[in-house]
Design a protein that fits this description.
Elements (H helix, E strand, L loop, with lengths): L6 H7 L3 E2 L4 E2 L4 E3 L4 E3 L3 E3 L4 E3 L2 E3 L3 E3 L4 E3 L5 E3 L4 E2 L4 E3 L1 E3 L18 E3 L2 E3 L4 E2 L4 E2 L4 E2 L4 E2 L4 E2 L7 E4 L4 E5 L4 H14 L2
Parallel strand pairs: 1-4, 2-5, 3-6, 4-7, 5-8, 6-9, 7-10, 8-11, 9-12, 10-15, 11-16, 12-17, 15-18, 16-19, 17-20, 19-21
Antiparallel strand pairs: 13-14, 21-22
C-alpha cells in the first residue's frame, strides 16, 4: 500500500504549481492549495498541515506532524532545507498580551494579528519540536537544535539552540561542496 498521493492525485489538489518527484502523504492536511507552490523532489510526511501562502523550493523534506501556517504573508523555504518532525512555523499569530482577544472564531476588529513573512534559506535544518515565529529569517546554512523557540532571525552558517534561540557556534560549509558534487552527478545522469 502506498501512503503517498499519485502524481495525478497531486495535480487534482489544485496547487499553484508542483514540480517533479513530489511525495505528499495522504494523511497530510492541505488548506488553500491554490496559494501553495512546491518545487522538485519534495516530501511531505504524515499528519503535516500546510495552510495559507507557502513556497517550497527543491529537495525539501517536511517530517511528520509539522505545521506551516502561512497566512497572507507566507512562508518561503529554499532548496535543500529539512524540517524535522513536530515543528510549527507561523507567519501569522495572535497578540498574547491580553490587550486584544484571540483565536480564529473572534472577529478581526477585536484582535491584533501579527502577520509577517517567514523565510528559510538554503541548507537550513530545523530539529524536532521547534517553533518559528512570524517575521523570522533563517540565514543560509543555519541549523537549530530540537525544542528551540526561534523568535529572531539567524546568522548564515550558524548552529543555534535554546528557549529563546541563541547562536552556539559557526556551522561548517563543507556541505556546499557536496551540493556541487550532487548537482554534477545529477546533471550527468540526464
Amino acid at each position: 500500500m502506498n501512503s503517498f498521493y499519485t502524481k495525478e492525485e497531486i495535480s487534482e489538489i489544485g496547487f499553484a504549481s508542483v514540480g517533479e518527484n513530489v511525495l505528499i502523504s495522504k494523511k497530510a492536511s492541505i488548506y488553500s492549495p491554490h496559494k501553495i507552490s512546491i518545487g522538485n523532489s519534495v516530501r511531505i510526511d504524515d499528519f503535516c498541515i500546510l495552510s495559507g501562502k507557502i513556497s517550497l523550493g527543491n529537495y525539501i523534506h517536511i517530517a511528520a506532524f509539522s505545521a506551516f501556517f502561512g497566512g497572507e504573508c507566507g512562508i518561503k523555504v529554499y532548496d535543500y532545507s529539512n524540517i524535522s518532525s513536530k515543528n510549527c512555523i507561523y507567519a501569522i499569530s495572535d497578540d498574547y498580551s491580553g490587550d486584544t482577544m484571540t483565536n480564529p472564531m473572534i472577529p478581526d476588529k477585536y484582535k491584533r494579528i501579527q502577520s509577517e513573512e517567514v523565510v528559510i534559506y538554503k541548507h537550513v535544518i530545523i530539529g524536532s519540536g521547534c517553533v518559528v515565529l512570524p517575521g523570522v529569517v533563517l540565514g543560509e546554512g543555519s541549523s537549530f537544535g530540537a525544542m528551540t523557540l526561534i523568535n529572531k532571525s539567524s546568522e548564515p552558517w550558524s548552529i543555534n539552540a535554546g528557549i529563546p534561540v541563541k547562536k552556539i557556534k559557526d556551522r561548517s560549509k563543507k556541505l556546499l561542496e557536496l551540493e556541487k558534487q550532487f548537482m554534477k552527478e545529477l546533471n550527468s545522469n540526464e
